Amino acid sequence: MSLFRRRKTVFVDADILVIGGGMAGCGATYESRYWGRDLKIVCVEKANIERSGAVAQGLYAINCYMGMQWGENQPEDHVRYARNDLMGLVREDLGYDIARHVDATVHKFEEWGLPMMRDPETGRYQREGKWQIMIHGESYKPIVAEAARKAATEVYNRIMVTHLLTDKTKPNRVAGAVGFNVRTGDYYVFRAKAVIVSAGGASHIFKPRAVGEGMGRTWYAPWSSASAYALPIQVGAKMTQMENRIVLTRFKDGYGPVGAYFLHLKTYTQNGYGEEYESKWYENTKALVGDYIDRHPVPTCLRNHAFLEEVKAGRGPIRMVTTEAFQDPHKETVGWENFLGMTIGQAVVWASQNIDPKHINPELTTSEPYVMGSHATCSGAWASGPEDYAPSEYQWGYNRMMTVEGLFGAGDAIGGTAHKFSSGSFTEGRIAGKAAVKYVNDLRNQPPQVSEQEYLDLEKTIFQPLENYRVGRNEIVAGTVSPSYLLPIHGLQRLEKIMDEYVGGISTNYMTNDRLLNRGLELLTMLREDMSSMGAEDLHQLQRTWELHHRLLASESVTHHTLFRQETRWPGYYYRGDHMRLDDENWHCFTLSRYDRNTGKWALEKAPVYHIVD
Ligand SMILES: Cc1cc2nc3c(=O)[nH]c(=O)nc-3n(C[C@H](O)[C@H](O)[C@H](O)COP(=O)(O)OP(=O)(O)OC[C@H]3O[C@@H](n4cnc5c(N)ncnc54)[C@H](O)[C@@H]3O)c2cc1C
User: Fold this and answer.
1) Cβ 82 under 6 angstroms from ligand 1
2) Which CATH number fits domain 249-366: 3.40.50.450, 3.90.700.10, 3.30.420.40, 3.40.50.2000?
3) Which of 69, 175, 280, 613 is the most exposed place for a label (fewest CB within 10 A)?
């Protein structure tokens, strides 16, 4: 019992609690302070905001910048682009709202010291593509974190939030959150009037291509553990588009990004026999999705589809033709720097495999699926839209508030708004922060009440895996397999296998159907039953346990959504073998789900897609 006795409980009161200090969380913290000068703004982060989140290693480009000051793009253009890429289904109100503010965010980054690359001829930011501008990104996160640190009343690093708290008298209202310090084991109870969830996306819910000692090498950050979805789901927030997982075409084994190569270096792909292949699959794709294949640019999922079909036809591997571009010394430098500044592992993989892209065209691969709301995909919470732009059906109070009162979100956490990336996530954090301040001010003297019983019960639940291990380990003398407990790594591998084989992962070529999905749900339920037997050897393993809980809940959501949408809307991301065609007549809509924690049941429904931009 020693661990239990030594543990302190720390109470923190806040007006606004920001969970996750990544791009969106830093934006939310910064903006909350701007509008809420006298409010207590607290940011809680499971790592350290200095380097946390998906941009931790640094980025080479800011992927969402309109360039309105030079008339390069308008917000409406970005809405059209995102809508096209997502096969027609985006929340245009939310996307427009980000696009109209994102340039101001990027200008702030520059003001705070982010080194931007400039076109020597025009003096404008150096474009990598229509929406991307190039930066020296190594210092990106520390610069953004500094702004948040200065704005916050307090930043709590190294605290993993495991659950949200709800109001004693009003279950559909948020009242705070609980978690534990991953270094000291102290239990934290945050009481807050408003909560902004910005805890990133989800990797490792599907089995990754790299397993064993390489399993940490995924494209999306391995520490993105689905908390942004699980926390709101647990308290009954509606989720949207959770079936819209993303599969990335990337350089093989290192997941080095291809954007700068395609857009800036003008490299292109070919099959194992040196042939162009995308055009060969035009008729095949058209039969599945109709006119969507004729859109420009071709939607990301459809380009994946051609890749997958070509490999299935036996003409792999697909390669990126770098040998031409790399003859130009400037392009060669940009190509290498792109990885050294962002995905150094890819450069190491190439070195270790004798691949010099000047002489050998490197192989590409398609990743395992990830769930996120900020890239070329839009899974996440169903949120209220901006008052001046959202259709009335999309508005129930405050901008970016979820369907739970006082609960806001930004970045990967919010659904329906693809292509926000780092700058758009920060911008959405700002939008959520501003709205949360308004909510708190409107509350006046009616703050939510935390139930003592609720946080005491949660404390027992959260730390139970340490106790399970302490007791159970005496039953074995060696090894890791115990009759009494399940280690987090075992649970994670079981989850990844279920998702991979039943919900459309790499081993089935992203294929699934109703039979597989229903069986997958049965197996996920069995895993859930076993979660009460998790054993955690130490605090690190306790964190892994709660990350697994979050991944499991998000996985259940993904599986229910995939089953509900009876069509293949995004071939190349996943296929419903029993509904292989896109079906605009019945499924030009959002899918929404709501989890009831009292019954464990999920309710699914459709919501209309409004095309606001012509
Ligand atoms: C490999 C890669 C390349 C990318 N390239 C680009 C690019 O070139 N340009 C670009 O603009 N964008 C790029 N992006 C996208 C960009 O990184 C994301 O869009 C952005 O980081 C999303 O912001 P977020 O705040 O939602 O999530 P994150 O920035 O990931 O932040 C989430 C935060 O929540 C914390 N957290 C998670 N769970 C908990 C919990 N339970 N309790 C407390 N804290 C928690 C995490 O530690 C993290 O700090 C890239 C992403 C990846 C992975």
Assistant:
1) no
2) 3.90.700.10
3) 69
